[in-house]
């Protein structure tokens, strides 16, 4: 036990330096539309991809609270690197939770992760604002497994994944459609990666290209769940996806916003005005008001994120209310973090537009937080229906 504790402490110390290295490369990756390969190699070698893998499988056994704390720290330096690696972390984290709870049905994933395999997520689909519980991808039952046909978007980690975890919908029984969750190994046939991630608004280094499934066959042993469509299919596996993914996203954008706030506090004292007879614009009362607003946003977000992650890690039983807590925390974080970043651009003025200033890249990255699922529209719909006792699956919406 003491040896494992020492290994974790050594990892945390090592990661401090690696995170800083990632920050030094972030602007280069963004400007050149490059995948964060050097970040990935350095972090993988250090053991970052094993943080959520239980010790029994060669990992560090960190739960949600510890993992999201590291995600936030990495995002402070390199948000695209953090958001992409969150895709791998959330698979290992949610499966580790299930395993600790006595469900060993996906133990093979922890074994593979312990051997260094990388997992990515294929839940994004055009026209589907309820990823994970519905799918536009067709799942067809065939002998020995399923065939999947569809178009997946936002495939972060495209250059390096070994397994793509995704879902499709089996509509063979119109009265009982099912969502089929599966993992596709890299050497599977009948899929193609379509490069769609050049010069996107933000998070360029994630290399979130599309994946086209052309009748991809996945054997039964890699089919991990068959669940009813909609919220009625929300078992521990799907809830785990939402919790680990959304809490990861929430901490990414909070870490990014903290970086922006620190940059403002660093640079504002050097900002001057010809009509302002003071040492700097930091003495401007209106700007002080805006900085105060930014600080209050940040101070109110962190406790909510930390509490949700801690209580999930402790196994607190909120039942169906977990969905409310997770969605509210993510939505609150990304919207509040965006307000901080947007306000920073107001304060920095024309200087903030310059590439060398660093603000415009962070501004572009921050804007994507509100698009990450669940977006603000779905979040508010879900929260309202849940609190008013309205069936979230009722059609038409």
UniProtKB/TrEMBL annotation:
Listed Gene3D superfamilies: Acyl-CoA dehydrogenase/oxidase, N-terminal domain, Butyryl-CoA Dehydrogenase, subunit A, domain 2, Butyryl-CoA Dehydrogenase, subunit A, domain 3
Single annotated GO MF: flavin adenine dinucleotide binding
Domain Acyl-CoA dehydrogenase C-terminal: 248-373
TM segment ranges: 236-256
Every Acyl-CoA dehydrogenase/oxidase N-terminal domain range: 22-89
Keyword presence, Glycoprotein: no
Keywords: Membrane, Oxidoreductase, Transmembrane, Transmembrane helix
Identification of the protein by name: Acyl-CoA dehydrogenase
Organism from which the protein derives: Ulvibacterium marinum
């Amino acid at each position: 036990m003491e040896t494992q504790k020492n290994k974790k402490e050594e990892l945390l110390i090592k990661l401090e330096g690696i995170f800083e290295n990632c920050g030094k490369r972030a602007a280069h990756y963004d400007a050149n539309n490059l995948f964060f390969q050097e970040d990935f190699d350095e972090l993988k070698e250090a053991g970052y991809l094993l943080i959520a893998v239980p010790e029994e499988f060669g990992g560090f056994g960190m739960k949600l609270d510890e993992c999201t704390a590291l995600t936030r720290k990495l995002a402070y330096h390199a948000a695209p690197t953090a958001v992409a690696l969150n895709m791998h972390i959330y698979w290992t984290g949610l499966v580790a939770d299930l395993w600790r709870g006595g469900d060993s049905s996906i133990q093979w994933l922890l074994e593979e992760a312990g051997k260094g395999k990388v997992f990515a997520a294929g839940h994004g689909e055009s026209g589907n604002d309820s990823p994970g519980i519905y799918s536009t991808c067709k799942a067809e039952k065939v002998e020995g497994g399923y065939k999947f046909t569809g178009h997946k978007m936002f495939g972060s980690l495209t250059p390096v994944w070994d397994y793509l975890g995704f879902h499709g919908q089996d509509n063979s029984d119109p009265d009982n459609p099912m969502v089929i969750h599966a993992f596709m190994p890299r050497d599977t046939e009948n899929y193609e990666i379509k490069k769609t991630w050049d010069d996107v608004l933000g998070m360029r280094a994630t290399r979130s290209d599309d994946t086209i499934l052309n009748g991809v066959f996945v054997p039964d042993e890699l089919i991990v769940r068959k669940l009813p469509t909609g919220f009625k299919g929300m078992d521990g596996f799907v809830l785990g996806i939402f919790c680990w993914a959304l809490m990861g996203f929430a901490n990414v954008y909070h870490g990014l916003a903290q970086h922006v706030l620190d940059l403002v506090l660093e640079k504002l004292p050097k900002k001057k005005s010809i009509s302002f007879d003071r040492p700097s614009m930091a003495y401007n009362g209106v700007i002080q008001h805006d900085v105060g607003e930014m600080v209050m946003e940040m101070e109110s977000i962190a406790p909510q994120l930390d509490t949700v992650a801690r209580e999930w890690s402790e196994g607190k039983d909120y039942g169906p209310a977990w969905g409310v807590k997770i969605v509210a925390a993510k939505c609150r974080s990304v919207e509040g973090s965006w307000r901080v970043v947007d306000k920073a651009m107001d304060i920095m003025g024309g200087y903030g537009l310059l590439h060398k200033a660093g603000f415009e890249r962070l501004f572009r990255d921050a804007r994507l937080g509100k698009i990450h699922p669940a977006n603000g529209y779905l979040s508010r719909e879900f929260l309202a229906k849940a609190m008013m006792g309205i069936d979230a699956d009722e059609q038409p919406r």
